[in-house]
Amino acid sequence: MVKTAITRVKARQILDSRGEPTLEADVYLADGSFGRSSVPAGASKGKYEAVEKRDEKDDYHGKGVISAISGVNYLGSKFIGLDAAEQEKIDNLMIALDGTDNKKNIGANAILAVSLAVAKAYASSEKMPLYRYFGSLIGNSEYRLPVPFVNIWNGGAHAGWATDLQEYMIVPFAASSFSESLRWCSEIFHTLKELLEKSGYATTVGDEGGFAPLNVKSNEEPLEWILKAIEKSGYWPEDEVAIALDAASSAFYRNGKYILNFKERENGRGIMRSTDEMIDFYKELKRRFPIVSIEDGLNEEDWNGWVELTKTLGSNTEIVGDDLYATNKGRLERGIELRASNAILIKPNQIGTLTETLDVIRTAMKNGYAAIISHRSGETEDTTISHLAVGTATGQIKAGSVCRGERICKYNELLRIEEELGKSG
User: Fold this and answer.
1) Residue 198: CB partners within 8 Å, gap ≥ 6?
2) β-sheet with 257-260: strand ranges across
3) 425 residues of the chain, pLDDT tens digit each
4) Is 320 in contact with 295 (CB distance < 8 Å)?
5) Which of 60, 192, 370, 378 sits between 20 and 30 A of 331, alpha carbons compared?
6) What's the CA angle centered on 140, arms 136 and 142, to 5 degrees?
């Protein structure tokens, strides 16, 4: 038996950052090496994401993952003796054993946990940093520390619908290193906290660690506060620190219209907007604020709208598809053909295996798309995405705010990688 042969696969139910169940898997190899991976979960999910297996029983209000653990046990029974070096073969076998397009039989959460645990076990056996292993799988040997998109204001489904837009992020694009970029973001985050406290706003945080005061008056107000915090921290909004938005617009799209003031929709006070009016809305925001990236600005089915949004703003703005693509190669290829965006968000749990994730990244970058590695709102302490961003050299990462341990662990891991790589990073 080769030293990297799989000898045991096991899983357990753990809790994510929202206190809800998720799955963690361990994979053991013949030489004693092992890999462990836990999978996150999203709050605002696109309908084209691979299926997350849940129990739908009384325990944990129906959100338990015991059925997904059974799936891991089933996979483990098929994997004894397989070589962890054959990542693509193992991932393809799991896809075949599931037998569906969206992994609904075994569950994408079960399959991804095993897929990433296999990769970690093999990298450990080879005494290879995980980012280097990811780089080898995608054919990359030059490692790049990513620019962080740091969420400092939460809205939408992540924060009680205080605003319609889900995430307001700062992008320290002019920093000379990752560690410097993280310092800038921390300083701006704490300056924003001081400004909000002095004005009587609550500084409790949402799911991803950004501030989430409920008494804001408009979708524009957080941008005004963030601009003040950037400037008061001593940075130039136009030249050093920009702003990125995740509108998550599918969450406020109903019957062909975008409903702003969404929390009032049941009272008939929502503001109905067409696709063209939403594009005009983003144009006006860009005119007033240094916005360089807009994610999910339109609904996941509004293909014609996406094409127009990209034509209108894409020359100087990242137009990022998240729900639009769901880390799915087929949907990405359609977007590339239509020129429906110029960037894609990468969430491994949307598709379910490492091999498929890397294939989507490769396809995006080959076609001139930016690829942003991303966390989910329900996270764990797993730092895989930090290594994925560096190993694939996408240059950008979304890991949440500079607050909450499940977010900070990703940034701290990037600090360690930066230290290890030195000038070669």
Assistant:
1) none
2) 253-254, 257-260, 271-273
3) 799 999 999 999 999 999 999 999 999 999 999 999 999 998 767 789 999 999 988 799 999 999 999 999 999 999 999 999 999 999 999 999 999 999 999 999 999 999 999 999 999 999 999 999 999 999 998 999 999 999 999 988 767 788 999 999 999 999 999 999 999 999 999 999 999 999 999 999 988 999 999 888 889 999 999 999 999 999 999 899 999 999 999 999 988 999 988 666 556 567 889 999 999 999 999 999 999 999 999 999 999 999 999 999 999 999 999 999 999 999 999 999 999 999 999 999 999 999 999 999 999 999 999 999 999 989 999 999 999 999 999 999 999 999 999 999 999 999 999 999 998 88
4) yes
5) 378
6) 120
Known catalytic residues are 208, 347
How far is Cα 313 from Cα 150, in angstroms, rounded to an integer? 22
d(CA 335, CA 354): 22
Other CB atoms within 10 Å distance of the CB of residue 280: 13
Angle between helix 405-421 and 178-198 (nearest 10): 150
Task: Set out the domains of the chain in order of their start, with CATH numbers.
Answer: 6-127 (3.30.390.10), 147-424 (3.20.20.120)
The residue whose two tokens read 């994979």 is 27
The predicted model scores a pTM of 0.96
Distance separating alpha carbons of residues 134 and 147, to the nearest angstrom: 19
Burial class (CB in 10 A: 0-12, 13-18, 19+), 259: buried
Q: Where are the alpha helices (DSSP H) in 233-328?
A: 275-288, 303-313
302 HSE (CA, 13 A, CB side): 26
